[in-house]
Amino acid sequence: MFREYSDFQVTQVISMFRTLLSINSLLLFHHNAKSLLILTLYTAMADVSGRIPHFKFGLIADVQYADSENGFNFSRTSERFYRKSLTLLEEAVQHWKQAKVDCVLQLGDIIDGKCRPEKQSEKCLQRVLNQFNELQGDVYHVWGNHELYNFERKVLLTSDLAPSPGCSSPPDSAYYSVVLHPKLLLVAMDCYEVSLLGVDNSYKYYDQAWKTLGAINKNDTWNSPEGLVGLDTRFVKYNGGCSMRQVQWLDQELTEARRKKQNVIVIGHLPVLESSAHAANLLWNFDDVLQVLSSHEDSVLCYCSGHDHDGGYAQDSAGIHHITFAGVIEAIDNNPFGTAHLYDNQLMLYGNGNVPNICMDLKYPIGSGDS
After folding, report:
1. How many whole angstroms separate alpha carbon 55 and alpha carbon 148?
2. Are residues 105 and 57 in contact, defined by beta-carbon separation less than 8 angstroms?
3. Given strand 346-352, what is the order of strands in its sheet?
4. What's the pLDDT tens digit per position in 278-331?
5. Using an 8 Å Cβ cutoff, are 224 and 236 in contact?
6. Is beta strand 176-181 parallel, antiparallel or unpaired with respect to 184-188?
7. What is the pLDDT of residues 208-258, one digit of tens each?
8. Are residues 313 and 323 in contact, defined by beta-carbon separation less than 8 angstroms?
9. Phi and psi of 265, rounded to 5°?
10. CB neighbours of 317 closer than 8 A, spacing ≥ 6?
């Protein structure tokens, strides 16, 4: 007796099958034949270069859950579905449970800033974490602006959103690295280390953030990009930057990864490549980070981010993939998340909703004898 699968699951597998075999169309079968179709397709997908995946992980961004009625973004151009986002996260978690992922990468803005004035920050965060806790593997977090709307930085550093004990992180820092697989290193950036969010004027980077914004943004409210053009539109309060100490740390981590012949995934809430997102959503000092990434093109596979709810994708001049995950909070008729499979020679991202399917060739193949 074959197991029944939902239309959602069938659509997912067909999308992945198209990517792998480069076919233009597949016929949908009657629901009684769905299980056979699923079994056939999953068998095909599990056999890339004759191997099953060595490691699997999920990715999702901008859940921004709040126990609130629907609302709009700052500029009132996009509707946000605060309660629905938790349902979509639950759907993603069920998908990852069935796929038996080893971990999930949560790319920031896990709850919405609306929670704080309604005094529901802790309650809403726990509801979201309860969904992630349904998974057997680890969940690795990065912080977005909405984490810092809800909690002070010093509180986040001791919360469930802080780097886990198995991660390598400098003291009192939110950026970290962790080995997911002997051939795959995850490097997580703190895109709000230089920021005015979640801190007071005693914070070590407060003055730097104040001067960075004040030098370019002359608006009464620094959340407004009014009057700014091009790349200058990124200098708003809801964005942030990385300290040079963190940028140097990134370079050291990637240098060590090269020595160990590890492939690297870098994640952060803010995008760092203009062609992968709107300029108004970029990291303040995106060029510093991009320069380091490009200098390690021999190990870095991709940079994954959120923040820009429209999502985006591009490759930079070094061939590094920049994947901006669309925001769950503004999803209307789709559910944007991804599931990545690490094979002998490739990292395959299977996208759901408007997340693209992307094939990334490993810099250091598994089983190549270069360990």
Report:
1. 32
2. yes
3. 138-141, 103-106, 55-60, 337-342, 346-352, 358-361
4. 999 999 999 999 999 999 999 999 999 999 999 999 999 999 999 999 999 999
5. yes
6. antiparallel
7. 999 999 999 999 999 999 999 999 999 999 999 999 999 999 999 999 999
8. yes
9. -110, 130
10. 294
The two structure tokens encoding residue 355: 């997340």
Q: What is the C-alpha separation between 273 and 278, in angstroms, rounded? A: 9
278, two tokens: 């709107």
33-88, pLDDT tens digit by residue? 343 344 334 434 444 444 699 999 999 999 999 999 988 876 778 899 999 999 99
Q: How far apart are CA 100 and CA 109, in angstroms?
A: 24
89-95 mean pLDDT: 98
Residue type, 54: H
Provide, for the chain, the percentages of residues in helix, strand and coil under a 3-state DSSP scheme, each rounded to the nearest 5.
35, 20, 50
Q: Which amino acid is it at 221?
A: T
Residues 313, 273: contact at Cβ < 8 Å? no
Kindly report, residue by residue over 100-130, the tens digit of the pLDDT. Answer: 999 999 999 999 999 999 999 999 999 999 9
The model carries a pTM of: 0.87
Least confident of 11-15, 92-96, 275-279: 11-15
Are the C-beta atoms of residues 303 and 360 closer than 8 Å to each other? no
Contact between 358 and 351 (Cβ < 8 Å): yes
Under DSSP, the state recorded for 203 is S
Contacts of 300 (CB under 8 A, 6+ apart): 254, 264, 266, 293, 318, 320, 363
Identify the CA nearest to 142 among candidates 313, 278, 291, 265: 265
Tokens matching residue 33:
């034949």
CB-neighbour burial class of residue 365 (10 A; exposed 0-12, middle 13-18, buried 19+): middle
Q: Dig out the tokens for 277 from the structure.
A: 């997102």
